[in-house]
Amino acid sequence: MTNQTDTSTKLTKQDIKKVYTRNLFGLQLGWNYEKMQGLGYAYVIMPVLKRLYGDDPEKMKKALKMQLSYFNTSQPMSHLIVGADMALEEELGIEAEETVMAVKTGLMGPMAGVGDTLFLAIYRAICFSIAAYMAMQGNVVGLIIPLIACAAVLWVRYKFTYIGYKSGRKMATNFSDKLAPVTEAASILGLTVVGALIPSVVSYKTDLAFTMGEVTFAVQTDILDKILPSMLPLAIVMLSYWLLGKKKVNSTRLIFILLALGMLLGNLQNILVFVTGLF
Hints:
This protein has 279 residues and is mainly α. The chain is 74% helix and 3% strand.
């Protein structure tokens, strides 16, 4: 936080409050299967970008492009990541691009697990079960409990924004000469998390089977799963990653390619029977 005269390059308390408010209502705006919360995250961090890079269109363009990258985590825990992001960019400027990307990618997975457990599973189960039981007994407190719990969560999310901001400033000022290992470690963690999501997010199974005499082999269970579980989802992700590296392939075209591939593979057994029938 600063009250210096040069407010064009330093964040104010009002800027942080704007980010907090936008995070409450805007993180899920524009959610899509390509970037998930990426568009909403860019909207949340926009007051900071305008404050730091508003006078430099090139830096603004570069920073905004970086912030529009893939992002997905638990909303309550996202305040910690956004706070650290604000601090890093305030202290290091556009040079913090790689560090910010590494922090976002590295933390969004672990934060999602913690946030979903605390704020979805535990918080909702305890709060609303007690409130529902009391309401069924005709106790008006059952109506008040969720309101009090909601106010408490909003306060916690507000404090998370400042905790992340202060932690990010300490990282930027005290470890500015050691950020490379931190960036690399966060990148490795992020890639590990994204890789672990493949079998749970991407699903594809084949019913293709081959019969040799009296023995029938199911390609999925008897061959592929024996070699490597979730081999087909991994192959689809690797193919998608390779295709996106091509100049003329964007996310929209990739969707149509995967649809065509899915229809082809889904009818592969019928195609093989038809082809073999010709000979």
